[in-house]
């Protein structure tokens, strides 16, 4: 049985609902199959529980057949694994510890011992929402968002953790900083963290 439903989105696109599957994995499968078949793709964008697929010519595609083939194919494996070095010196680390009832080092240990997955990008280019946050580390967004959050800030909010790829406003709880650039304009694509990647954090300093 299909784990998705597709509906038209604009002239050339489809929005695929995937409540019981991994959107990043489906997006990778669509890219691979379209490349193999020579099907023209404009973009494939995974979300929290959806995938937006935009074709050059949707008339040349039977979306249900395409998705069924992707669904039946074996998983292609990880997009990649990234380890990010972090100084856990964030201004909200003490508050996160208080909210969770943990010591600050316990917060750090849980964050560094967990393997996260980049589910989707949003909010700003290169801002990857990482899932897999342990229940003990789930804290609400700040009631007073900051007008400026420095690039490289490592943050928690609800069921997600993330790294701000550049200077942005934001209301997440800031627990650390990294010097690793995660948005590099000379790269293609510029975002270092891509949906489907496995991400780990390592304490330094």
TrEMBL record:
Q: Which domain of life is it from?
A: Bacteria
Q: Does the keyword Oxidoreductase apply?
A: no
Which InterPro entries does this chain map to? CT_C_D, Cyclophilin-like_dom_sf, PxpB
Q: Name one GO molecular function term.
A: hydrolase activity
* Pfam families, A to Z: CT_C_D
Q: Which UniProt keywords apply?
A: ATP-binding, Hydrolase, Nucleotide-binding
Which residue numbers delimit the Carboxyltransferase domain?
A: 4-193
Cross-referenced Gene3D superfamilies, in alphabetical order? 3.30.1360.40, Cyclophilin-like (2.40.100.10)
Give a yes or no for keyword Hydrolase in this entry.
yes
Query: What is this protein called in UniProt?
Result: Carboxyltransferase domain-containing protein
Give the organism, scientific name.
Answer: Kineosporia babensis
């Amino acid at each position: 049985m299909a784990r998705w439903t597709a509906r038209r989105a604009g002239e050339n696109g489809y929005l695929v609902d995937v409540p019981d599957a991994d959107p990043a994995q489906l997006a990778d499968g669509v890219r691979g199959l379209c490349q193999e078949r020579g099907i023209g793709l404009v973009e494939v964008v995974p979300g929290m529980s959806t995938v937006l697929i935009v074709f050059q010519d949707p008339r040349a595609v039977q979306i249900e057949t395409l998705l069924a083939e992707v669904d039946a194919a074996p998983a292609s494996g990880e997009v990649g694994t990234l380890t990010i070095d972090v100084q856990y010196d964030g201004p909200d680390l003490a508050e996160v510890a208080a909210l969770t009832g943990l010591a600050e080092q316990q917060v750090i240990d849980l964050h560094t011992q967990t393997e996260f997955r980049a589910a989707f990008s949003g909010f700003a280019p290169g801002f990857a929402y990482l899932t897999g946050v342990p229940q003990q580390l789930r804290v609400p967004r700040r009631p007073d968002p900051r007008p400026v959050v420095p690039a490289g800030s490592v943050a928690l909010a609800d069921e997600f953790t993330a790294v701000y790829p550049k200077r942005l406003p934001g209301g997440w709880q800031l627990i650390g900083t990294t010097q690793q650039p995660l948005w590099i304009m000379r790269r293609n694509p510029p975002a270092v963290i891509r949906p489907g990647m496995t991400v780990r954090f390592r304490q330094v300093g």
